[in-house]
Amino acid sequence: MAKDLRAFIEQLAAAAPDQIQLVTRRVDRRFDITSIAERLGEDGRFPALIFTDVEGSSMPLVINLTATYERLALALDTSVADMARVYGERQAKPIQAEIVSDGPAKEVVLRGEAVDLSALPIPFHNELDAGPYITGGVMIVKDPDTGAQNAGLYRHQVHDARTLGVYIQGSHHGGYIYRRNSERGEPTEFALVVGHYPTFMLGAVSRLPGIGGEFAEAGALLQEPISLVKAETVDLMVPAHAEIVVEGRLLPDETRLEGPFGEWTGYYVSVGAQPVMHVSAMTMRRNPIYYDVFPAGQEHLVLGSLPRMGTIYRRVREAVPGVVNVNVPAHARTHCYISIRKTRDSEVKRAALAAIATEPENLRCVVVVDDDVNVFHEPEVTWAIGTRMRPDEDVLTIPDWNGPGDLLPSNWNYRVDGTHEPVMGAVMIMDATKPAPPVQYPQRARPPQDKVREVRLDGLLQAFDPSLLRSPKTLTGD
User: The whole model's pTM is what?
Assistant: First the structure.
């Protein structure tokens, strides 16, 4: 069975049935879907939700499918503790895509006026959004200079039945390709892929050098090649096992007002003129499942964090072979925690600088800790900061590191009259490690770690019955 969206849903249902829930009552696409997901999130619950009856559409919708590290680790067939390492190691061994003649993504083909984007259950996500947005669509475009296909995850506002918007930051490869074509007076062909195995999404979000390589990265993460098939109306190759593919062209220099939209930062920013996408065809499975990412919520953050962890792990390892783990916490994607097995004090700065050079736009704070600290358990990181860091000696601030950004409010100066201007951002490095050998440092107090690792919790804990207090012999076993 091909690894696609359906395969992962089945995999999740088998591995963690409590992590996938069905909503069968009719829901309005205007905020019902995200309100339910948000309410669960307030209780610290982020199950994948499948909505079977979205008003105005015959298609089911899945949201929150990729909202936890545990589920992304499941897609990589590993654990949360190992996923950054596994990601980085697989990333170094790309697996090229394979070309096939047909696939499930071509079971239904709609062209021209037969296309109606409103048939898709595209939600209104957050209160002040300008309209419904496709948030889980991977946009594929081709570099006019090399012919390399590039894939990236962007936001797409629905303007009407056959027109979309796309927000492309200046540093994104998709934006570069659009500008190169516009300079030539040529349209940019696109294919928007909605619904695939999570590793396809991770590959599209990865920070790769140069243009292209996302299909090979997705194959490396999947441990098998992605199958590609020719698109119907544009000269692009698209995943054969996608749920839905929307095809069309961006005309040179044509823009339309786009936004506001709640971004991963949790703020409304960047409203303005953006390129317009004219849809020429839509292909899909006979009974497609619409994949949606909850923007400005945990899913948006988690999906963007793991690819950064894997790439940072790989780059830090080149500078500091003793790197143990990397975490870009989902709730604070501008932070990075790195654990190293330190042999000399200089390795702290080398590790931190490798990280911020890998992710120069978004990182604001890098914390380096020793290998006895679990970077995925934030209380341990803050404990290391509190007990191993000297604020007057172990904090380094680098000014003017981040260029003026559209999405981070901290990279703007806001005035009382409502106007604002971009400013350069800084990055901070915090050394929360012990001194390097041979310096002796106090020992950490905790149970023997080999004993802790031997503990098996399955069947160990039972519900407590208060009546046992009235039967001391039963409670004590006397």
Answer: 0.89
